[in-house]
């Protein structure tokens, strides 16, 4: 009977020390990349604490469904929630998992999923779409300019080739003429020699 108070006191001290060693609750919990069936939860953890995982509780506002996601051996500060229902209100809370247990739950964060027809609900996705369109337009302009440059180079090459070909043909004609002119006097001289020989 004398040992029971001491044992209870030791248990109380042990639990108090464990609660002191528990990590602080996550802060700046936010929901982004909302879709009809998914969303991304992100949070921050105060520095100086060893965090080995996280735990997320997800619940519908009407209380019909509750889901727990728990991951350890990770330093991730975000998680993707899948299989959500469109146009449905959800509440989430995040806990950090440390070496001596889990932290207190973060503040409750409410979000609502979108319709399936809402493809680009956030401004960031619209900006990304505009950037991709600008990139596609710039790429098309570069391709057209390169093709025009190649066409100009090919046309210039063909023109130079025609000029060189014409010069070669004219030079060959000029080379042929002197040879024909030289053969004529040789023929006449040959004829003269023959006539002289015949005359003798």
From TrEMBL:
Provide the Gene Ontology terms for cellular component: extracellular region; plasma membrane
Q: How does it sit in the membrane?
A: Single-pass membrane protein
Q: Which domain of life is it from?
A: Eukaryota
Enumerate the InterPro entries for this protein: FN3_dom (IPR003961), FN3_sf (IPR036116), FNDC_type_III_4/5 (IPR052120), Ig-like_fold (IPR013783)
Which residue stretches belong to region Disordered? 168-200
Q: Locate the transmembrane regions by residue number.
A: 140-158
Q: Where in the cell is it found?
A: Membrane; Secreted
Would you indicate the residue range of the signal peptide? Answer: none
What Pfam families does this protein map onto?
fn3
The entry's keywords = Glycoprotein, Membrane, Secreted, Transmembrane, Transmembrane helix
Record domain Fibronectin type-III: where: 23-116
Q: What is its main location?
A: membrane
Q: Where is the composition biased (Basic and acidic residues)?
A: 168-189
Task: Fetch the PROSITE patterns from UniProt.
Answer: FN3
Q: What is this protein called?
A: Fibronectin type III domain containing 4a
